[in-house]
Amino acid sequence: MTGVETTSGRQAVLPNLSEPPRLAPSEDVSEAAIRLSRKQPANQTAAAILGNRLTTVWGLCQEAGDPLADPEVVHRLRVATRRSLAAFSLLKPLLPRKQHRRFVRWLRNLRRAAGTARDLDVIVDRLQHHLPPVADPESTLLKLLNLLGDYQVASRVPLQKWHHHLLRSNWAQRVDELTRGLSTKQKCERYGSFVSRRLTRCGKRFFATAGHSAKRADDLHQIRIEGKRLRYSLELVPTQSRKSAYDRCLRSLKKMQVALGDFTDHTAAAGCFERLREEGLPAELMPLVEELRREEHLLAELAQQRFTIWWNNKRRRRLRRRFSKTLKR
Rounded distance, CA 83 to CA 1, Å? Predict the structure, then answer.
């Protein structure tokens, strides 16, 4: 491990660049209760997938708008919206254009609202770990945490508004119309051939972005976005086709996301502190906010360096091979 001094005088630890990142806890896969048969008509399987993923989004949306909602619920909502968007992207040729556009618009807005709330949750949690067991009520860190706590509660308001908007827009009825329309569609190809073709296209898009070294921050952001899309799309591989290559491919994508996690968290935190600084905080908080902004920026750069070294030719080729084997019957 390598110590790097930050602006606060603390030691920012840069992990050994040769070590693979640890896996985060696995996320629930709602398709576990659905058997995705490659012989079933694609439209019927698509109806089951979208119905399941949209039901998950709705349940979490109702919970996440509570000002006292558990941060984990907000995190799960953001994941659920991403998984639903990946499904809509993969299944797009089967869907009426108007319905596809409507749900994608709703889901993107929900994802953005959940993302803003989640970023604040992460920052507050991180700063709380810097507090001593008994904090001075006049400490600037405690005052900043109290201010961020107010922002944290306020960040749930957009989620509440979107929940009410979707209620007024007859979300449940719209989901029912979508799934019933898909289920009754005539003369549709088998799910296995359809999803294989669509995943091939999804894979090409991912490897066009991630199939080379990533040296810029924008590159890492794009790899993260396309990696999540591919991962959540791979969950839709027919049950009979899930061989060992499938498990290894998903595991590689999860490792890649964990490797990118520190970079995205620190980048989001630096952006949050930058916005706080521009909003005109009390003068006594400005030095601390500027210090934290610089520290998060440095930590983001260190995380970017770590990922750039970790995401080498060997790992890229291995993931490409595993993906190709996953699509073979």
Answer: 35
Split into its structural domains, the chain has a count of 2
* 174 and 111, same domain (yes or no): yes
DSSP letter at 243 equals -
Q: Which of 127-136, 224-233, 244-253, 314-323 has the lowest mean pLDDT?
A: 127-136
Q: How far is CA 182 from CA 38, 92, 174, in A?
A: 17, 12, 12
Alpha-carbon span 48 to 179, nearest angstrom:
7
In the three-class reduction of DSSP (H, G, I as helix; E, B as strand; rest coil), residue 134 is classed as coil
In angstroms, rounded to a whole number, what is the distance separating the alpha carbons of residues 328 and 318?
A: 16
Distance CA 212, CA 83 (A): 25
Same domain, 268 and 165: no
The answer to whether the CB of 325 falls within 8 A of the CB of 245 is yes
SS3 9: coil
Boundaries of domain holding 89 = 42-188
8-state DSSP, 12: E
Choosing from 154, 173, 188, the residue where a domain stops is 188
The answer to whether position 6 is within a domain reads: no
Q: What pLDDT is attached to residue 37? A: 87
Reported pTM: 0.86
Task: With CA atoms as reference, report the closest residue to 4 among 288, 299, 307, 308.
Answer: 299
Determine the Cα–Cα distance for residues 170 and 159; give it in Å rounded to an integer: 17
| Average pLDDT of span 199-207 | 95
Coil, helix or strand at residue 2:
strand
Greatest CA separation for the chain: 70
Cα gap 250→61, rounded to integer Å: 27
Query: Where are any strands of DSSP class E within 214-292?
Result: none
